[in-house]
Write a structure and sequence with these properties.
single chain, about 550 residues, alpha+beta, Dipeptide-binding Protein, domain 3, 7-stranded mixed sheet, 5-stranded antiparallel sheet, about 20% strand, globular, disordered N terminus
Length: about 550
């Protein structure tokens, strides 16, 4: 077996440092000897998950769920950019790939227990991988976190129901698990950094077909993380208590309370009133909160690309590539980033925002005349479109202003009328995913630290219901490009970094040419944290994303 170092992503984020406000590149609160106290926060972002979405598959609040659960791997926070740094172990201490590059072996940290005292073993890992691919799992769950498992040997048979376990997942002993692939997968350790490990002794009792709605999530969630489930009040709050047996050290905080708010503005008001200790901060509020002597603003690359998703099932013109390019060419994206996001963002030609993944890729530039020419080339008669519904799950005023700027560009340049609709997360999810009724949506998609993230969105065989199709599964439109499939299949097999980057750069160019999504920009996001909290590590990437925040060391002044 040969050891493989997985720290290559650190340098990739250095370029994002230029996006951070120079006055507070990576703020850090002072050390404090105080212990105890309860942290009260608003785990929300620009996106879409209320506290009543109780399973870790529901949305984008990984930073909340990693207080309860753990993963095999996670990321350090890069001290230069306050974004993702190098890949490190969580439940796994070390891992290596075999000489033929087909088997990854993970060595688990010994002596870990679940919150109920039951020992954690490799059997829990094997169970969690099976669960992620279980063919009986509610098909409406966004199971993108299972995508890294797709190429493990035996997955196809397991998903077909002909076996009761993924054959390529082998428990070697209580602290060792080996995974064998049909072809090399260089990115597997990175990709599973967002896949939570669950207790076999608990969830194996539940029916996968109704797992999402089981009362287990409301009453007794059991993990290996630093805090334990205490109480849930629907629509109001979730309370956690410190896990004295956490394998990285008992937390200094006594507990955590997550409060529910209708939107970011309401949460920020509560923060300013001293009711909560941290919350998400929209870019237009950064200047004001930076003057708050009792708070520290934490910026970081969002790890999310904003994009427009145009639904060919409800607006036939959206299936026309020239029409989609016309929509993009009509938007002065740089002007929006400069004037609405305060310059804290960068344009992207495809899903990938990192320079080593999008280097040399040319995308559709802003040019009103080109937009008009593309519209004419498309043959779309805008008079037949009526007023297009332009929806989003972003409820903040800044997002509304951004959508208004985009809509005005389309009206002025192309004569297209839209009606903006900002919906709460539940309503939008039902409209977009379950009913497939959205026409044109302003949304965000995590771009990830590697090129593998695009598999869940744009590979024709993706298991993720919000990806290549993006609308209700019984609708006819389905993005599929054989070249894209080939590149996304090849990328993970390449252990040579330069070759892997070149592969994903080609995939980026295909995305830029096809525009399955109309790619816009990646912005800086922000949290604001009370100065009563100390030792805080937090980055606003993708609802928290997967990173080690050392929350067991956080303290709060009494």
């Amino acid at each position: 077996m040969t050891k493989r170092t997985l720290s290559r992503w650190s340098a990739a984020f250095l370029g994002l440092a230029l996006l951070l406000p120079t006055a507070a590149a990576v703020p850090a609160t002072a050390q404090s000897p105080a212990a105890g106290g309860t942290l009260v926060g608003a785990w929300m972002g620009p996106c879409c998950e209320p506290i009543d979405w109780l399973t870790p598959w529901d949305g984008d609040t990984e930073h909340w769920y990693d207080k309860i659960y753990s993963r095999l791997t996670t990321y350090e926070v890069d001290p230069t950019t306050n974004g993702y740094g190098k890949l490190i172990g969580d439940l796994a201490d070390t891992w290596e790939v075999s000489d033929d590059q087909l088997t990854w072996t993970f060595h688990l940290h010994p002596g870990i227990t679940w919150h109920d005292g039951v020992p954690f073993t490799a059997n829990d890992v094997a169970f969690s991988f099976d669960l992620a691919m279980n063919p009986k799992l509610d098909p409406t769950l966004p199971v993108q976190h299972g995508d890294p498992l797709q190429t493990i040997s035996g997955v196809k048979d397991y998903k077909a129901g002909t076996t009761d376990h993924i054959a390529g997942v082998k428990v070697v002993d209580d602290n060792t698990i080996a995974l064998t692939f049909d072809k090399p997968n260089a990115l597997f350790p990175d990709a599973i950094s967002e896949l939570f490990i669950f207790p076999q002794h608990e969830l194996s009792k539940l029916d996968p077909a109704t797992l999402k709605t089981n009362d287990w999530w409301k009453t007794k969630q059991i993990g290996t993380g630093p805090f334990m489930w205490k109480a849930y009040t629907p629509g109001q709050s979730i309370e956690l208590a410190a896990n004295p047996n956490y394998f990285k050290g008992a937390p200094k905080l006594a507990g955590i309370i997550r409060r529910e708010f209708s939107d970011p503005a309401a949460a920020l008001l509560a923060f300013d009133n001293g009711e909560i200790d941290f919350t998400y901060l929209t870019a237009d509020e950064v200047a004001r909160e930076s003057q708050n002597a009792n708070a520290t603003v934490f910026p970081g690359p969002s790890g999310v690309d904003n994009f427009l998703q145009c639904n060919p099932n409800t607006v036939a013109a959206c299936g026309n590539s020239d029409f989609r390019h016309a929509l993009l060419a009509a938007i002065d994206r740089q002007n929006i980033v400069d004037n609405l996001y305060g310059g804290n963002g960068k344009l992207v030609p495809c899903l990938y925002s990192l320079d080593h993944l999008n280097h040399g890729v040319t995308g559709q530039a802003y040019d009103p005349q080109v937009a008009k020419d593309l519209l004419a080339k498309s043959g779309v008669d805008v008079s037949t479109l009526g007023t297009i519904n332009f929806d989003t799950y972003y409820t903040d005023q800044l997002s509304g202003n951004v959508m208004a700027a985009i809509a005005q560009s389309w009206k002025d340049t192309l004569g297209i009328d839209t009606q903006i609709e900002q919906l709460d997360g539940d309503t939008w999810t039902t409209k977009f995913y379950k009913k497939g009724e959205s026409q044109l949506s302003f949304a965000g998609g995590a771009n990830g630290p590697t090129g593998e993230r695009a598999r869940g969105y744009f590979h024709s065989n993706s298991a993720y219901p919000g990806g290549n199709n993006g609308w209700a599964g019984d609708k006819p439109y389905h993005y599929a490009n054989p070249k894209m499939d080939e590149l996304l299949d090849t990328g993970p097999t390449l252990f040579d970094q330069a070759a892997q980057d070149a592969d994903y750069q080609q995939a980026c160019q295909v995305m830029a040419d096809d525009l399955p999504w109309i790619f816009l920009w990646e912005t800086v996001r922000y949290h604001v944290v009370s100065n009563k909290l100390h030792n805080v590590i937090i980055t606003p990437a993708a609802g928290g994303g997967s990173y080690y925040d050392a929350v067991e060391t956080w303290t709060k002044d009494q």
